[in-house]
Amino acid sequence: MKKFIALTATLSLLISCGSSDRGELVGVKGKKWRPEKPYGMTLVPGGAYIMGKSDDDLANVQDAPTKTVTVRAFYMDETEITNTEYRQFVEWVKDSTIRTRLAILADEQGQTPGSGGIGDYAFNDAVEEGEEKSPYDTYMYENYWSLGDGDDMYAGRKLNHKPKLIKDPQKYPDEFYVEVMDSMYLPESESYNGLRTIDVSKLVFSYKWMDIQSAAKDKSKNTREKRSKYLISEKVQVYPDTTVWIKDFAYSYNEPMHNDYFWHEAYGLYPVVGVSWGQAKAFCAWRTLNKNTYQKDKKRLQVNSFRLPSEAEWEYAARGGIQGGTFPWGGPYAKNDRGCFLANFKPNRGDYAADGALYTVEANSFDPNDYNLFNMAGNVAEWTDSSYDANSYEYVSTMNPNVTDRANSRKVIRGGSWKDVSYFLQTSTRDWEYRDSARSYIGFRTVQDYMGTQNTANGG
User: Fold this and answer.
1) If one looks up domain 41-82+283-449 in CATH, what number appears?
2) How far are the Cα atoms of 94, 150, 153 from residue 125, in angstroms, in the given order?
3) Residue ranges per domain, the chain?
4) How far is residue 442's CA from residue 436's CA, in Å, rounded to a whole number?
5) For the segment 100-132, what is each residue's pLDDT rounded down to a tens digit?
6) What's 40's DSSP letter?
7) DSSP state string for 100-161
């Protein structure tokens, strides 16, 4: 016992002598942090508002009774995610897929970084004979990176991003590089008009997320087992379904939209469509990964995850601080005092062009609401994170209400679209679609939690 007390006293003396806190409770000093507004986003101050239909429920759906709720502050994309922004995601996945395939083939051929040809793209984590690695890299390679994960023996391997990918077939460095690139395209027999098309089924994004809601309710005392039980792995094909322009409208000529809408630069600033709820969630995970990779390289603190908004957050943001507004601009009319339409929708039966647009319009078209958010009504309906339940307003919490039911495949969409009547443009109108469905009139935008709670506003 005396030895223990002596050891404790010695440790205490060493700790006190080695610090500059003078024995006071000063807290742990971390990196300086300053709030940074994410690019392309606007801050929606937290506050209370009356969620639901304050006016008559003309459609008699009876799924949105009024309820006063409070939401915390968050950042939200000023516009819907555009084709060019989603293409950045697709290109990143394509680049990573090609580099992974090159690295695997280089590994199978015994090639190492710097050996020329496909070897330049070999995994960048192997500990070569005579090469000095840090103790950390050596340990991680021997115990994790070289062992794989589950069914993927190459999971966790470090790709070499230094050499640029060679896109000109005449400049491919060796036959192994040709083999990998050929595997990324559809067979020659399936090409036409002299063009070979990328096999979009190869563009798969893998990520993991923690089901915190379910884990928190688990009463198991085995923390490690609980964590692994609720760590969910996802694999998502990321390329949007361009055939929605054909499938959504029978006996209709929409082939030009199918052929050009997603990839052609003429539509770059238009909202992406043909994206399922799962693909929208994958985009959020990638955007978080992409930003935090940059933060890590710059030795900065990581940012909060990007995610889909909850249904309550979306409605609060759409109202723009106008408590009882029917639409994001307030009053009950879809035209301004000059007779101009205030959103992109279907004003009359069969007349899609009366508002000046046949299909979608650029994501920053029309005037924004008072939170500087564009097209919170019309253009494309938007996925939310919430599961749809007609009775959910009766039981959800009044603080940051949300329903996340993994067993419920119906997900809430909000805002109405270019092919909807004005009823669906109302801030309080609820609608839904199946999570694995993709439509020519559904897109999304992302949000990010605001760090801190002091930024609040009166919802009225």
Assistant:
1) 3.90.1580.10
2) 21, 19, 14
3) 41-82+283-449
4) 12
5) 999 999 989 888 887 888 999 998 876 555 567
6) T
7) HHHHHHHHHTT--TTSSGGGGGS-S----TT----HHHHHHIIIIITT-BTTBTTTTPPP--
